[in-house]
Fold:
Amino acid sequence: MPAAVLFLIFVLLLIIAIPVSITLGITSVLPSIFDPSFTVGAKYLIRAMFGGLDSFPLLAVPMFVLSGIVMAKGGISKKLFNVFAYFLGRFTAGMPCAVIVTCLFYGAISGSAPATVAAVGSMTIPILTSLGYDLTFSTAIVAVAGGLGVIIPPSIPFIMYGMASGASVSNLFLAGIIPGLMIGFLLMLYAIYHCKRFGEDKEKIHAEVSQLHEKGLLRVLKESFFALLSPVIILGCIYTGIASPTEAAVISVFYAFLISLLVYRSIHLRDIWGIFVEAIRTFTPILFILAASTAFSRVLTLMQVPQTVSTFILENFHSPVAILLVINAFLLLVGMVMDTTPAILILTPILLPIVKAIGVDPVQFGVIMVVNLAIGFVTPPIGVNLFVASSLTEVPVMSIAKKAMPMITLFLVALLLITFIPALSIGIL
Structure:
């Protein structure tokens, strides 16, 4: 069965809304059905699926998912926002900038873009609208800034890429710091431009910020101290060698429960069962996608798809710049129609040999891939962040996407800089 036909069937199944995990399973089996001489049968695929899940780094994913849910329920995002609003609130676009910085910090806790949008957006969008900011603008800025959740470490997509490529997860986490901060800075510049152009309700903002200042800096910091400490503990454990990313993920779960139950008392023992159920519901689809994509990638390898694609690109595009631009364009298109996890697991074995051939570091390529797919979070038709944000405010998805276009453009500018200036990602290693 030709690879082109297989991909066409794969795309058609996605278009008619067959779940990604089932689509991957069907397309993995098809070659052996249509070609009896193909060496991969059902038994092999089942072994590949179970083998793909037998991974120690992979254990970090459900742990970070659980940790993110605990912190969302525990109101951690509100405490983070208060700190940044205290310092930034009196400046032009101070409150939108405080939202962006909160997304950066919360991303360093949850490792997930949709989780960041849900946790930060549910709390900050009502605040922004009450201060006179346009509802669509407020929703769009949270949707786009939520994409920072997969770039700032710890990041679930980086863990997936590390598993698929063999690259060090710790190095990937380090490499994501500067790109994440840079994109956050560019988004804040746009927020300042937007607020200068369309104006702000200074009186309402001043009243809101004054309430925080009346509390005093020490009280605000005291209330937020343990929330701010969370990313420091998680990342500190990883980079000091105290714990691996997987072990740090487990530490983050215990820490999240500890501060939510005992310090802030924002959740109770009776809430724990519901939190575990929500975490299982969130992770189970990811689990099935992981298993099925592992089997699918094995089938692609046996069909020699990576070698074919690699040969085609290297023969038709001779300049490293042209090759990287083609790969970026391809990943942007993929990000529009496919979720992050299957995209990374399927495309890494195909694209990594190509970029290695032109001298791109696997860690840098991991950052390039994740930033591309982060843009996919806010581009229709899939655009998970858009749907999450829309569910919070009932603003139509396309209205959010239209309002987000200038911010997406800045994301693309950052992507080009990360692609062609390796020092921005791997310079920190």
Notes: The mean pLDDT is 86. Residues 272-302 form the longest helix (31 residues).
